[in-house]
Structure formats: structure tokens, C-alpha cells
Amino acid sequence: MILRFEDVAVARGGRVLVHGLSLQLAAGDAALVTGSNGAGKSSLLRVAAGLLGPFAGRVERGGEAALLTEAHAHDPELSLDRALGFWAKVDRVAPALDALELAHLADVPVRLLSTGQRRRAGLARVVAGGAALWLLDEPANGLDADGVLLLERLLAEHRARGGAAMVASHTPVALPHAVEVRL
Ligand SMILES: Nc1ncnc2c1ncn2[C@@H]1O[C@H](COP(=O)(O)OP(=O)(O)OP(=O)(O)O)[C@@H](O)[C@H]1O
């Protein structure tokens, strides 16, 4: 078991956004979270990450989780490889940069990266971190068509290696056999 929700409710600002949600993600599983703006997708991912407590129910994680959000996780003044080194073991940084086709930008300060390059850098952090559970909030935002294909391939590889993922996305992201959680 990598993630288990038992009858979970999520509340924000005194409003219950999600209730009675039960699901289980084991090795290779994925969940796709959909819903309109403000439905509670980001809040649900924060609950899955353990950053926000459930309003009701139980959340269990079998291991580490990596959360990708819109927030900038990297120090803007550091070079990309050093910024990533803050989050991951040094020997995992170069392979993660390669995986996201960012190796040529390793020495560039994070503040100079484009929107899509920043998003790729966020994904490189997730890849480098090696967590079993990937929690990706709008991971395709800012990515070009090749970037979306890359994201889909990385998700497939992660699942094939025994990982699991919960992805919230407005735009289509191929996530074969994913459980759909409609909010
Ligand atoms: N810290 C907070 N305090 C109070 N209300 C909040 C807080 N964070 C979010 N909310 C509210 O909770 C609701 C759900 O927000 P959330 O970001 O989870 O939605 P979302 O489905 O991810 O939306 P979007 O598609 O726009 O990203 C919104 O109405 C939002 O205003």
C-alpha cells in the first residue's frame, strides 16, 4: 500500500469540499483528480501529502511522498543543479536533469528559466527525490507538447518501477488505468 484514503473529507475555510472519499493506491496504480476551479483538487493533494489534515476519515501513506505544485520549490539564485541538490542526493541530480532534458541548463540560475523549464525543473525534483508516491498538481501547466509526452513517459516508468501517482489536471494527461476522482 502506497496511499490509502478511508472515508476522507476535506474542508477549506469552513467548507467541506470532498467527503466520503475512499481509495487505495498500490505499486503501479494511479489516480486522476478532476474538477472545476475551486473544487478542491489542490487541497486533496495536500491532504494526500500530509500537509493538510483530513476533516474526517483516515489517510495512510506507505512511504515518502513528493508533491509538485505551482509554488516555486527552487532557490531562484542557485544554479539549477545546485537547487536540485538541495532536495535530492547529489548522484540523482544529473540523471533527473537528463530525464527532463534539462542537462544543458544545469549551470543556469533558476530565476532565468522559462515557465516550461521551471515546470520541468519541478518534475526533475520529483524524479530525483525517489519517493514512491508522486502527487502532481497540474503538472502539464506550462509544458509544450513534447513536455507533456515526457511527463506521461515518466509517470509510466515510475509506475512500472513500483511507484504510484495522484495527478490533478485540467488538460489531458495520459494515465492508463487510473482511477478517476471527480470532485
Ligand atoms: N488556506 C485556505 N483557506 C481557506 N480557503 C482556502 C484555502 N486554500 C484554498 N481554499 C479554498 O478552497 C477551495 C478549493 O481550493 P483548491 O485550491 O483546493 O481548488 P482546486 O480544485 O485545486 O482549484 P483550481 O482548479 O482553481 O486549482 C477554494 O474555494 C479555495 O478558495
Write structural notes for this entry:
Residues 3-181 form the ABC transporter domain. InterPro entries: ABC_transporter-like_ATP-bd (IPR003439), ABC_transptr_haem_export_CcmA (IPR005895), P-loop_NTPase (IPR027417). Keywords: ATP-binding, Cytochrome c-type biogenesis, Membrane, Nucleotide-binding, Translocase, Transport. This is Heme ABC exporter ATP-binding protein CcmA. One of its GO terms (biological process) is cytochrome complex assembly. With 183 residues, this protein is of the alpha/beta class. It has one domain: 3-Layer(aba) Sandwich (Rossmann fold). Helices cover 31% and strands 27% of the residues. The chain has helices at 41-49, 80-85, 90-99, 115-129, 145-160; strands spanning 3-12, 15-25, 30-34, 56-61, 65-68, 133-137, 164-168, 179-182. A five-stranded parallel sheet has the order 5-6-7-3-8, sandwiched between helices. Strands 2-1-4 form a three-stranded antiparallel sheet, with helices on one face. A hairpin with a 2-residue loop joins strand 1 and strand 2. Helix 3 packs across helix 4. The radius of gyration is 16 Å and the shape is globular. It starts with a strand and ends with a strand. 36% of the residues are buried. The mean pLDDT is 95. The structure holds adenosine-5'-triphosphate. Residues 12-13, 17, 35, 37-43 line the site of adenosine-5'-triphosphate.
